[in-house]
Structure formats: structure tokens, C-alpha cells
Amino acid sequence: MKDVAARAGVGLKTVSRVVGGEPGVTPETERRVQEAIEALGFRRNDSARVLRKGRTASVGLVLEDLADPFYGPLSRAVEEVARAHGALLVNGSSAEDPERERELVLALCARRVDGLIVIPAGDDHRYLEPEIRAGVATVFVDRPAGRIDADVVLSDSFGGAREGVAHLIAHGHRRIGFIGDHPRIHTATERLRGYRAAMAGAGLPVDDSWVSLGSTEPGRVTGAATAMLAGPEPVTALFAGNNRVTVTVVRVLAGTSRPVALVGFDDFELADLLRPGVTVVAQDAAALGRVAADRLFQRLAGAAPAPARVELPTRLIPRGSGELPPA
Amino acid sequence: MKDVAARAGVGLKTVSRVVGGEPGVTPETERRVQEAIEALGFRRNDSARVLRKGRTASVGLVLEDLADPFYGPLSRAVEEVARAHGALLVNGSSAEDPERERELVLALCARRVDGLIVIPAGDDHRYLEPEIRAGVATVFVDRPAGRIDADVVLSDSFGGAREGVAHLIAHGHRRIGFIGDHPRIHTATERLRGYRAAMAGAGLPVDDSWVSLGSTEPGRVTGAATAMLAGPEPVTALFAGNNRVTVTVVRVLAGTSRPVALVGFDDFELADLLRPGVTVVAQDAAALGRVAADRLFQRLAGAAPAPARVELPTRLIPRGSGELPPA
DNA sequence: TTGAAAGCGCTAACAC
DNA sequence: GTGTTAGCGCTTTCAA
């Protein structure tokens, strides 16, 4: 910038004005400055700008895994909102590791992102308290924050699961299995709670062997499903706790002779083209991201409402697998 | 930091040493500084650090659409490599709009990312010349840069498509349709070239009505497929130019009575569970990201080889749809 | 309309 | 081992 000023024969501040689009510069002067900028290939250094202004025009997004199809649309939605506000997105995957989440979040804070959207892996976010006090707007998505009071936007896991399981019950099932994510994860326990509520609501008992929480790794899920489908009194239907579980269960069921009903939480591409089509409880990942980002930018614009919990509804989409009668 | 120094009763530089993990500080002094840091909830401001050091420890990733399942694994792979080098990822979607790509890239440069990984939307990247000269390492992925000489990592679109089409020919097809992405996109034309090469190699003519390039929007693709399957001499097989086209074609074929063979470029989840399973030419999106990021960090480490083109092999995965005989 | 000086928070270089 | 000074590239303040 110094060089540009020298070449254009003007003061430093004049260049700053032109680059920043501030008023108060003669067209003629502006032309000279622009010329020097072109000639020197000058681009303003935003790091210096940030240092001075205190705002980075960037928001951090910490999620579990960028490669998971559930998070793609969510990220994209956050990005679009950020873009509308002139902000860039800095993001990272926690790989469902609380320590890695913490490192990532603190790294983002050190870079002074204006705001933070977090899909938490851990269950204790007190480490964020100083940051939030220091002015970093923070919104949690998909799962609530642990041990701090913060905005959270999530899907109605409890209600969605209850509706999905009730759907199976309505189609005559009485022995229904539940395979879900690790119990450390909020959505997993909420969905299990929904399952239990639906069973209890219909006066049905739940056998311990019908419930399996744990890693969504295919081997674990396959083992759980196979076990529930074996024995003299196998389950006649399965409820899958998220998209990865559902996909693995579909694979298992493709290999069984007797038809087994299935409802999965989360919609996924091509679910309608499988035979039978997979009945799902769909949540709107993009809406989750959009609502969270909107909330974030409200706060960045100065609004300071008390932290709130927003719960988005889910939608049951019958496609065949959930309407199969008990074998 | 000033406050920390005051509270600990030490000089500014000593705090800097402790925070930066530099040697040459008594354990006792270090303890006092740490204490002050805790008490004040101090976190180093990386913007200032960047300004001083000249490196941001961040890399920019510009792709077409974060929500596209093809880019998820690619982003994640880049992220992992970046993480191994202590860098964060700043990313954005160009939405296949050259102007938006340019804005995004320049915004990233203004923030002084150390390096840039770009999946180009446009075909003229001369606007990047000053940046590259200024030291921003740049690697293009999936498609080559336009009108500048830069590193590029891509899949063997030509060879993969040729192999896929040859596979259909080997199974007896002579009238084969090709539905691909917009001709502006490098991979689309390369795959078309592969198609033509396979047909020519087998001495088969190509009717103009068998080839359709354009948007991957479902309506357009459905129209193209339907047209090729109509008339007295319909195609007996289709080659789909990318994952989105393939998915739409699968939907169209699910509604036809007569069996039509299909090979798609790009693998996708559940392709094996459809009936018939979808034969694909698979590319390794994660490898694409990993190789590109490795190359980027080599450059950042000081290596300055001439820009090179790395082409990753594709793999034909027969699953049924590509082995159907002509109707 | 324009510019000079101060300073954002940090680290490199060089004292002590 | 520790502190002091200068300055990274920009914007803010205030004077011309």
C-alpha cells in the first residue's frame, strides 16, 4: 500500500480510501491510485485490516465429518448465509473426538473468527466460556452444548423416532429392534427415548436384546442386526438411528430371506429406488444450517437474546420398507 | 499479552516465549506467566501473529458445491493433510460460477492463505498470476487451470470413459448414448472424447442424437435420456457422465419396461444395492484431495518443481447394469 | 479533499 | 534468562 501511494504520488490514507471504497476522493485522484494498484498488482492484506478493525468477517464451522453426506448440505447452507453477510467459512472435522473438537474450536477462536457454529462431539464446553465472554457468538447445531448455556438448533429426534416406531407398531409389529449411535451422542439417546415412548405408548414391552447403541461402524451394526434377527423370537422390524446405520441395515436385510420391516432416521439419496423403498424419518439438514447461521448473524449484528433452543420438525416418508407386515 | 506481562511482572517477550513454546524461560517464570494467562483468560491473537510472521497456517479450498457427495471425501482428505501440517481449511463453493470462483479465490488471497486448492469453474485463471508470483502455492484438482501453467491433479476421465463404453460394447451394444455435464467443463469433454474413442475403436458410428451434454439438472437429463430411448432405433445402453447424471438416469430406467444397460462415471453409495447393481467407472475422490494437498505442502515447504499434471487411474466396477445384453 | 501520526497485538533482532 | 525496540500493513484520529 505504501508502494501504491508512492507510485500514485498520494498519501497512504488516500489509497486506503480508494481500496476501502470510502468517499471523499476526487475521481482524478482515484484514477491515479487505481492505475498504480493495477501496475503493482496490489491486493490489500486483510490480516492487517483485521488486526486494526477487530473483525475477521469469517465464521468457524466445526462438525463431525465433512465427508458425511448429512453434513454436506448443512455446511453449504451455513456457507450461503455467511456469504450473504460477506463472511467466509473456516471449517474442520472433529472426527467425533472431544479433544480434537476443543483444539479446533480454540484454534478458530485464536484466529478471531467472528462467530462459531459447532456440532459438538464432547459434552463439556466450559472451555468456551472465556471466548463467549470475549464476544465470540456461538451457536450449536444438531446436539446441545454441554454444561454451558448457549443457542442450539436441532431436529426433533425424540418426536421423530417416536413417530417412526409408532408407524411400525401401526403396521402390526410388536417386536421392534433399535440400533443407534454411541450413547455419548445426544441424538442417539433422544431417539432411543422416542423408541421407548412409542413402545410404552402402545403398551409393548421392550426386551433388552432389542436395543443396541454403539459405534456406527458397519461391523458393529451388522452384528447387532444379525443378533436381533436370530433366535426363536426375532424382531420383525428394525428402527435405525441414523443414515449410516440405516445403510448398513439395508445391506443386512438384502441378505435375509424373510422380509423385515425397517424405518430409518435421516433421509438419504436413492432411498426411494431400493426395493422396497426405505421408509425414513427425514430431517432437513440444510434448514438446520440455515437457521443456526441466521441466529449467529443476528447475534453478530448486535442482538443479544437469551440463549434459546430451536427444534425443527421431522417428517415421516413412507416408501415401503416401513409398511411391511410382520413376517 | 501486555496485561499478562504486567500481571506476571515480566516483559512482553517472555510471555511471547511462553505462549509460543520457545525455550529459554525458567520453569518458575513460566509458571507465573501461565498463572497470569489462566487468570486473565488470555488467548493469543493469531491475526497479529500472522501479520508479523507472514504465514497464516491456513489453506483455501474452492470447490463447486460442498453438498455434492463427490466433494465431501475430497474436502475431508485435504483437511486431514492440512491438519497434519498444522493448517486450517478455509473453503467456499463456487456453484460452478466462474465469477463467483474468482471472487472467492481473491478473497482467500486477500486473507493471505498460504496455499490454494481449486476445483475450477472458470476457464481463464490469468487473474491468479499476480498471486502465484506473490508466493501463493496453488494446485488445481479435478480439472486443469485455464490459460495459466499450474499443478493439476485429476482422474483419467478419458481412459475411464473409454473403458466404460468399451465394456458396454463388449457386452454386445452398438447403439450407446452418452449423457454428460456442460461442455464448458473439462471432465465432460474428456469423457465424451473417451466415449468417441471407444466407439471408433470398435468401428461403430456415433449418431448425433446419441450424445447430449448440458446441465446435470434432473429435468434436462431426464429429457435427454427419454429421447434417446424413444423412436424406432433407440439406444440399448447409456453411459452417464457423472454421479448426478447417473442417479437421474437410474430413476428414468426404473420406469422403463425394456432393460437398458448403464455404466456411470463416479461411484456412489448404494450403487451395489440397486437392482440391477449399477456398474460404474469409479474415481477416488479422497485420493484426488490427498495428492493435491501433498503437492501443495511440498511447495509450501520450499520445493519449487515445474507445474505438473498428475492423472489418477479409474476403476471399472461391474455390478450388473453394465452387463445387461442389448434388448 | 487530503495526509501525518499513532497504534491494533504480536514477534525478530538485539541488547542486557 | 530476560527485556527493549522496531515494525508487520492497515485504519483511525485529527489536523491541514
From TrEMBL, chains A, B:
<dbReference type="InterPro" id="IPR010982">
    <property type="entry name" value="Lambda_DNA-bd_dom_sf"/>
</dbReference>
<keyword id="KW-0805">Transcription regulation</keyword>
<protein>
    <submittedName>
        <fullName>LacI family DNA-binding transcriptional regulator</fullName>
    </submittedName>
</protein>
<keyword id="KW-0804">Transcription</keyword>
<dbReference type="InterPro" id="IPR028082">
    <property type="entry name" value="Peripla_BP_I"/>
</dbReference>
<feature type="domain" description="HTH lacI-type">
    <location>
        <begin position="1"/>
        <end position="53"/>
    </location>
</feature>
<keyword id="KW-0238">DNA-binding</keyword>
<dbReference type="GO" id="GO:0003677">
    <property type="term" value="F:DNA binding"/>
</dbReference>
<dbReference type="Pfam" id="PF00356">
    <property type="entry name" value="LacI"/>
</dbReference>
<dbReference type="InterPro" id="IPR000843">
    <property type="entry name" value="HTH_LacI"/>
</dbReference>
<dbReference type="Pfam" id="PF13377">
    <property type="entry name" value="Peripla_BP_3"/>
</dbReference>
<dbReference type="InterPro" id="IPR046335">
    <property type="entry name" value="LacI/GalR-like_sensor"/>
</dbReference>
